[in-house]
Amino acid sequence: MPFDQKNLKISTAMQEYICARSTDLRIATTCEGPLIFSVKISPPKATDHVMTVGERKVYISSLQAQFIKTIDERMLPRCAVERSKLKK
């Protein structure tokens, strides 16, 4: 199934998260499913699909692009979720 960026939804919270980052991000395949990381941790690959959110680029693994329909908080690594809980 080809990647269709028009049908990919991004939650408001994730749009804010992506725009607030200091680097571009990449949605990568992990043992926990698709997670979003800084490109410093998970560098983009030539086969990634690219979309723009605000001033940031989000690289999406070609494997994940076949399956994801929504970019939401479930894609945050646990350390990011725990860090946000500590701030509250």
Task: Tag the structure with descriptive keywords.
88 residues; alpha/beta; Hypothetical Protein Aq_1857, Chain: A; four-stranded mixed sheet; two-stranded parallel ribbon; 3 helices; 6 strands
- Work out the helicity level: 25-40%
Mean pLDDT: 86
Instruction: Return the CATH architecture.
Output: Sandwich
Assign the CATH class. Answer: Mainly Beta
CATH topology tier name: Hypothetical Protein Aq_1857, Chain: A
Please identify which CATH superfamily we are dealing with: HesB-like domain
Percentage of residues in strands = 25-35%
Biggest beta-sheet profile? 4 strands, mixed
Q: Can you tell me the residue ranges where pLDDT is under 50 for at least 5 consecutive residues?
A: none
Overall structural class, as computed from helix and strand content, comes to alpha/beta
Write down the secondary-structure element order. Answer: EHEEEEHEH
Could you explain the architecture of this structure?
This protein is of the alpha/beta class. It has three helices and six strands; from the N terminus they run βαββββαβα. The protein has helices at 12-20, 62-65, 78-87, and strands at 9-10, 25-30, 33-38, 49-53, 56-60, 70-71. The chain has a four-stranded mixed β-sheet. The protein has a two-stranded parallel ribbon with strand order 1-6. A hairpin with a 2-residue loop joins β2 (25-30) and β3 (33-38). The protein is globular.
